What does this fold into?
Amino acid sequence: MKKTIPLFIVIFGGLIFVAYAFSPHKFLQDDFYNKFYVPWSYASAPFAALLGIISLSMMHSSKIKRRAPKWQYSYFFFAGFIVTALAGLIGGMQKGGLLMWMFENMQMPMSATMFSLLAFYMASAAYKAFRARSLEATVLLAAAIFVMLAQVPLGVKISKHLPTVSQWILDVPNLASKRGIALGVGLGSVATSLKILLGIERSYLGGGD
Amino acid sequence: MSFELMSNLVGAFFTLCIFSFLYKDNPFYQMSEQLLVGISLGYGLVFTYERIFVPFLWQPIVLKHNFILIIPAILGTLYLFRFSRKLGWLSRYPIAFSMMSIGMGVPLGIHASILVQMRQGMVPIETVNLFLIFIGTIAVLLYFFFSKAHSGAYGKFVNVGKWYMMIGFGASFGMTVMARISLLIGRIQFLVNDVMGLLK
It folds into this structure.
């Protein structure tokens, strides 16, 4: 009841999905997938999102209760969450509303800046890699420099052949390495899917009985 | 003060709050970081409500009287038992329902990640570049094959795969850095053109 039935659902439903991928039969394509699985997935999905919201809120409220380090900032999390949620639920998602104003003038600038900060940390990581002074690190950095310089006007001013070299790096050695890795990842993911399908891998069910 | 200027000043304030982390961790950064998480979560909640809950659950049940959808709604509420110690096992049912689609992942994964890549990798070797790609792919694959010791001539060939991967990682690194730099340029342009331009 606690583990066997969920396991049976995954194995039985998974095998139907294998058949769905191979067979164009109406029962599988229309009745099972379009009329049963898709609407049922959409209908149960909001509760999964709710689980995430409750989990994060519980984490922050416990941080405030325990007076954990930097607990004061958790109030900003709640302020942002409550104001945005109320703005959207009452005012709607249309352009010109408070929700979209907050999204365009607070969320977007902050997330774009957060990602742009990574440029600085990547530069420091590159410096550390270069200090390693191994031949592998040098090759990695040389490829990165060629690719980066080819995308800016300075690169073309240094040498007109730089974009060609950069494109060759992307099209030949980069392609070969990505293809090798993609094949490895593909084989690994298929093996993991098969393990789940055959009931060997059960970690997604969580611990306990 | 115009509405546009006020909106841009708010954006500029939070941009500078995040950039302040470059100096060191500080209350302005901490505040904006938590605010970002809160706003993103609030937006996610509204988006899920408007785009998923209302059209796929509320309207079919209330307007179209498709009462069968009450079953997946109950199934979905079982997710919330994750927080209960005694009834936590009930949350396995909706997880199992969503995991069913893993069955589709086997044939589609074989097709997309293996067969398509193999088909593209086994074209007639007519140019030097195609030869280099073929050798590189084989060498990279063998680099992750640990059933045979990486020694002798085999070890040297396998080592070629490492060099290919280093070039590949370098190219990915370069592309990622440039993507981040373009974001940085965007933020600087926002501060200089949009905000300073309106302030002048």
Q: What stands out?
A: Residues 147 and 167 of chain A are 8 Å apart (CA to CA). Residues 26-65 of chain A form the longest helix (40 residues). Chain A has eight helices and no strands.
